[in-house]
Structures are given as C-alpha cells and as structure tokens.
Amino acid sequence: MAEAMAMVKSELSHLFHRSRHYKQILRAIIKGNVRWSDIKRAVELWENRSIPNAQLSRLLETLIKQG
Questions:
Q1: Is the pLDDT confidence value at 17 over 80?
Q2: What band does 5 get if pLDDT is binned at 50, 70 and 90?
Q3: What is the rounded CA–CA span in Å between residue 2 and residue 58?
Q4: How far apart, in whole angstroms, are the C-alpha atoms of residue 65 and residue 67?
Q5: Are the C-beta atoms of 28 and 17 separated by less than 8 Å?
Q6: Phi, psi for 46 (deg, rounded to 5)
C-alpha cells in the first residue's frame, strides 16, 4: 500500500509541475463539479483569474489521456 501511495504522489507531483491548474481542476472534480463549465467556474474562482477555454480543454484532455 505504501508503494502505491508513493507512486500516486510521484505522478501527481509531476503533473502539478507541468501546470498549476491541474491541482485546481482535480480539486473541482473531487468536490463534485463534473460539467466542463462547473470545473471552469471553480478553477477561476479559486485562482481569482480567468482561464481561456482552449487551455482548460487541453488540460482536461491531458488528464483524460493520462487516465
């Protein structure tokens, strides 16, 4: 179990270094925001700035591809 947790931490750390938005996107999903617009609204609220639609779409596509 400890090995699995270390692997998850490593993967998340790598992901968060690629873009600061990933942490907020995952946070939004964990809190029940499953629609694209709800995720966007939550991320923008927490970051106190807007995020371009194309950028959010790319980030979500990357998360989906990563599984």
A1: no
A2: confident
A3: 32
A4: 5
A5: no
A6: -70, -35
Residue 3: its pLDDT value, please?
85
State how far the Cα of 8 lies from the Cα of 2, in Å rounded to an integer.
10
Label each residue of 15-54 as H, E or C.
Answer: HHHHCCHHHHHHHHHHCCCCCHHHHHHHHHHHHCCCCCHH
Residue 40, both tokens: 């966007």
* Alpha-carbon separation of residue 60 from 27, 40, 46, 63 (angstroms): 13, 10, 17, 5
The residues, any chain, with a CB within 8 Å of residue 41's CB and separated by 6 or more, are: 33
Query: Which residue, chain included where needed, has tokens 């779409």?
Result: 57
End-to-end CA distance of the chain: 20
DSSP class of residue 1 equals -
